[in-house]
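Model it.
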Amino acid sequence: MKTQTIQLKKPTKETLIAIRQSAQKFAQLLKAHNISEDDIIAEFNAMRKQARRDATK
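Modeled.
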């Protein structure tokens, strides 16, 4: 089996700065609303579990 590779462009400095700014703003919003990363993961897992249940009905 032959392995395929995907060529990716290196992100520009501006793109990296924008990503960092977005991550900082997101962290500030989470803190302001008293939400942890674990809360987000738990909610995602619960939604995924419910979607699986609904799909088997």
